Amino acid sequence: MGTTPPFFRLSLELRNRIYHFALLNQRAIFTQSAVQLSVSYIQLSGVYERQAAKNLCWLLTSRRFLEEGLEQFYQHATLDRCSIVRDAKFVSQDLTLDGKTSVFELGRVRAANLSVTMGKTHVVRKDNTRYNVIVPRGKERFDSVDEDFGALGRAIVGLEACGLRELKLHVHLFRTTPGIGRLLGTGSWGGDSDGDSDEDEDDDDDEDEEYDSDDTYTESYWNRYGTNLSKPSKVSGYIADFSFLKNLGTSWEKVWIQYTPTYMERYWGDEDPVAANVLAVPIIEESLAKTAKELVGGKGWALRDSLVDESLSATVWVLDVERKGKAEKTGKLEHVGLHSYLAPCDKCRQREEKFRREPAEDGMVRFVGEDCGAVVEFETPVFFGQEGGGSIVAEQ
Ligand SMILES: [Zn+2]
Q1: How confident is the model at residue 32 (pLDDT cuts 50, 70, 90)?
Q2: Which value, to the nearest 10 degrees, does the dihedral of the CA atoms of residues 142, 148, 151, 156 take?
Q3: Ligand 1: distance of its center to the CA of 357 in Å?
Q4: What pTM did the predictor assign?
Q5: Which of 112, 166, 230, 321 has the lowest CB atom count within 10 Å?
């Protein structure tokens, strides 16, 4: 046609370059199957664009813009947030041609970068053994939080074609300090805490509060901040089961999981016992690895784990699992365990010092403060009971 607008006389390569800059740092927010999804194009760090939908209005100015612009968008589109839609009134306006259907589709997105916050709950088995169970958390604060990806999973299952192939998942354990509960005025921390919020391995005055809380997804639970792990002497063991992640489907080609062990970020608190983490962290990591293999189809895989040692945080564990043919099952876990943690230091009085695990004699666990050399040593924690056996009954 002789009337082709000048823009479309540019080569496709140049047009794509222009689309790229128009899309940079932008995100699409749209609703599908009762979940509101946030899908971002390439995000430069430190740049945050508001007005997501408005910024992308140019897509609607011509059919050809829409087709080519979306093509470019999906080259780098990453699902990075989802929330349950409780009330259509509060949903952002979708970008639509017909006033109803979003121009964006989850089915065309290839990558997801999601995070999941975990806490603990208690279970008591019929034989009266007590366990800490690591469970998804987050709904306590906002009921739109899709904490176990159940709602997102239903949206994925409902897709005619699903292009999701690469999953990045950040796993945190939620922890707070007793002091925070008091500061927020949200009720007591066991009622018998006497203002001593320092870490204390031998402090056993929390025996009652460990078990008398109504430890469910309720406001009172949230108020009690009971998500820290119990000391090994108080439980029969720790149980982690990440199979809920299979809500995200099992056709991923690559799964990358970053697990941030305890004592990580000041905001999340730092009050749960090191001894508990010495035992629980490997259990959590092994469960994540088991589920990651299933997320890539459960037939063949290549797996590796590694550590990221950042100066301002405890050591982070990273797991990479890639889908392979049936016959191929390569790699094993080599870095599981609690390697370091951040905590206040009794010796040099730093508020947050990094303690690294070092080899110790049989029966002992030793961490050494990176800055002042303070040694924290304790006996290798043991469970009273044995993991496994008996069905789990929730404590009343
Ligand atoms: Zn120190």
Answers
A1: confident
A2: 140
A3: 14
A4: 0.82
A5: 166
